[in-house]
Specification:
185 residues, alpha/beta, TIM Barrel, eight-stranded parallel barrel, 8 helices, 19% strand
Length: 185
């Protein structure tokens, strides 16, 4: 099962504890670590990304939104929120193998992400999110199944993912699961 840890240092008590969790998840075989620390100043974000890249032996580190930071810190890729410039806009300045993922909230966005060169997509919310309030309609397993069938890029289920429902997401066609709480609790 492909697994993507999306970071949030705040419930952990800061960057130091977050780096410990990142190292633990890397050792446990998590595939992707998405650094999603939107409120960190640039210098602090860059330091966190460099430290995460240095700590990871297995997981590929991605940076949320900031392609420039990902490139400068030698991360494996970037993750783009919905509404960002498309992956194809970034390809001319990224090295071969640089991963670009996209957040998607409906099938049309998934199809567009695939068309625009995304390497993978996070599809949410499948279930009620555990780490934040999200008023968007839930897709459930049937919605996830339809979404995965609509595209050829790998789709990671996001939103309310637990150890108990992860296998159901895979059975619905997801390539993997993503989350904050799942990997930080």
């Amino acid at each position: 099962m492909n697994r993507c840890h999306i970071t949030d240092r705040r419930p952990l008590g800061g960057v130091g504890p977050l780096l410990e969790v990142i190292a633990r998840n890397d050792a446990a075989g998590v595939d992707l670590i998405q650094i999603r620390e939107k409120d960190l100043p640039l210098r602090d974000l860059s330091a966190l990304v460099r430290d995460a890249v240095a700590a990871c032996r297995h997981a590929r580190v991605l940076v949320n939104t900031r392609v420039d930071v990902a490139l400068a810190c030698r991360a494996a890729g970037a993750h783009l929120p919905a509404g960002s410039p498309p992956p194809s806009a970034w390809r001319p300045i990224t090295p071969p193998g640089f991963l670009i993922g996209v957040s998607c909230h409906d099938i049309d966005e998934l199809v567009q992400a695939g068309r625009e060169g995304a390497d993978y997509a996070l599809f949410s919310p499948v279930f009620r999110p555990l780490s934040k309030q999200d008023d968007r309609p839930l897709h459930g397993l049937d919605g996830l199944r339809r979404a995965c069938a609509a595209v050829t890029i790998p789709v990671y289920a996001l939103g309310g993912i637990t150890a108990e429902n992860s296998a159901l997401c895979l059975q619905a066609g997801a390539a993997g699961v993503a989350g904050i709480t799942l990997f930080q609790s």
